[in-house]
Backbone:
């Protein structure tokens, strides 16, 4: 059976590549699925329905075969103009290539249930955090600290209970389904999602996990995940250290003004068991997340598919660290921001964003760090965007001079 499975997949991949090269394609209906820069893909079940935003190879053979491929490239050119550790030769390029491959076993006509997804990742260049800014929150969410080529995620997913329950097993990023806010996805600063500096199984330290997503009703979803924590970047996701990360989340989605203004409220509770990292022992960490997203103005209130308008988001992450904690551990953390899509006439897909992120630290000095970010993301074509970005970082890691970081990000969906 294994030979038959491999033969089917190879044939589908060959047909996909050949037709993609020839330019044959079919129009795909619009979707809200986004291909997020740290590899986060909201649902592999939605991959087969989406193409425009995720950059999938759009052709009839690929879709009928059940193989979907979604490559996305992110490039950052940033400079530290003042403060931080150093401004000397402080302009750097950093790139991230994400390559999602998803196989739908039913469409492949294989005797297996569900779907399988794999994320290949490569980073190259250098970020500014480690040698130039010294910030704890990490100014770019694609910074992996050292260049990596890895299978960032690979997991098997299946549905049950008439698709009310989804189970996902394999190497995963906790920020794919948990503690994630759609409104904050376009910020360059990593702390508007989960920072790579966190001791959690998130990019670039994704790890093995079991996740269950239960849709209780149309508005309410319960999520539960258990991770093998502290797997090193570039590994297959197994740490071998016995440290466990567990998180539960309740998400409520609603809409105000007769459905014109969608919103979401999320409550999460998480625990990282005691362990050791780089020779430093730490006690168990308990944490929570309180998140709110709300669209507060829609330009065309009569059209629920019109995304133009103003949205806001707020999040608070209280933490209890115990008596032994890592030198660069985070305490309480707060983020908030505003997003306007389509502010400029005839630029309906452009995004203007402003946000603030604050975190409690334990490294001396001010023992806190605050970041203010302002950006404008211009969607030049359906597959290419350019995003000028400015960040003011107050007391990086609590011990360095205030820094001002400026630069540009581009994103290409192939």
Residues:
């Amino acid at each position: 059976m294994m030979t038959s499975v491999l033969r089917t997949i190879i044939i589908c991949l060959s047909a996909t590549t050949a037709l993609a090269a020839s330019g044959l394609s079919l129009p795909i209906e619009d979707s809200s699925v986004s291909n997020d820069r740290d590899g986060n893909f909201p649902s592999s079940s939605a991959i087969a329905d989406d193409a425009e935003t995720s950059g999938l190879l759009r052709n009839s053979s690929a879709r009928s075969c059940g193989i979907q491929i979604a490559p996305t490239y992110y490039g950052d050119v940033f400079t530290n103009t003042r403060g931080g550790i150093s401004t000397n030769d402080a302009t750097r390029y950093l790139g991230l290539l994400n390559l999602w491959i998803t196989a739908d076993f039913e469409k492949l006509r294989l005797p297996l249930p569900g779907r399988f997804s794999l994320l290949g990742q490569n980073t190259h260049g250098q970020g500014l955090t480690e040698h130039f800014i010294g910030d704890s929150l990490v100014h770019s969410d694609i910074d992996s600290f050292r260049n990596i080529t890895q299978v960032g995620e690979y997991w098997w997913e299946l549905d049950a209970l008439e698709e009310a329950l989804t189970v996902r097993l394999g190497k995963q990023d906790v920020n794919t389904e948990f503690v994630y806010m759609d409104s904050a996805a376009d910020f360059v600063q990593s702390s508007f999602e989960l920072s790579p500096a966190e001791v959690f199984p998130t990019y670039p330290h994704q790890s093995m996990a079991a996740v269950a997503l239960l849709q209780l009703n149309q508005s309410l979803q319960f999520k539960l995940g258990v991770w093998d924590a502290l797997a090193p970047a570039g590994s297959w996701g197994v740490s071998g250290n016995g440290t466990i990360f567990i998180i539960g989340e309740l998400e409520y989605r609603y809409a105000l003004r007769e459905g014109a203004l969608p919103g979401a409220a999320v409550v999460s509770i998480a625990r990282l068991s005691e362990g050791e990292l780089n020779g430093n022992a730490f006690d168990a960490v308990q944490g929570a997340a309180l998140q709110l997203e709300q669209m507060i103005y829609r330009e065309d209130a009569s059209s629920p598919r019109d995304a133009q308008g103003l949205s806001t988001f707020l999040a608070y992450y209280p933490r209890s660290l115990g008596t032994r904690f890592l030198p660069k551990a985070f305490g309480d953390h707060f983020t908030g921001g505003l997003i306007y899509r389509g502010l400029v006439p005839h630029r309906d897909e452009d995004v203007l964003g402003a946000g603030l992120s604050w975190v409690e630290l334990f490294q001396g000095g001010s023992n806190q760090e605050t970041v203010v970010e302002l950006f404008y993301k211009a969607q030049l074509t359906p597959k290419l965007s350019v995003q000028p970005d400015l960040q003011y970082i107050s007391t990086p890691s609590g011990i360095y001079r205030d820094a001002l970081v400026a630069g540009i990000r581009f994103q290409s969906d192939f």
Summary: The first helix runs from residue 2 to 22.
